[in-house]
């Protein structure tokens, strides 16, 4: 990527947090 905007970083963080929530749900469900 040539230029990274703060928005892109925020989107990436959101994706990671969403994934963490999904993984947590899986752990609790197990």
Tell me briefly what this model is.
With 30 residues, the protein is mainly α. It is built from one helix and no strands.
Explain what you see.
Keywords: Plasmid. This protein has one helix at 6-29. The mean pLDDT is 86. Helix content is 80%, strand content 0%. The longest helix is centred in the middle third of the chain and has 24 residues, at 6-29. With 30 residues, the protein is mainly α. The protein contains one helix and no strands. The chain is rod-shaped.
Question: What's the layout of helices and strands?
Answer:
Elements: H1 6-29
Q: Structural class of the secondary structure composition?
A: mainly alpha
**Distance from first to last alpha carbon:** 38 Å
The portion of residues assigned to helices is over 70%
* Structural shape: rod-shaped
Keywords: Plasmid
State the main characteristics:
plasmid; 30 residues; single chain
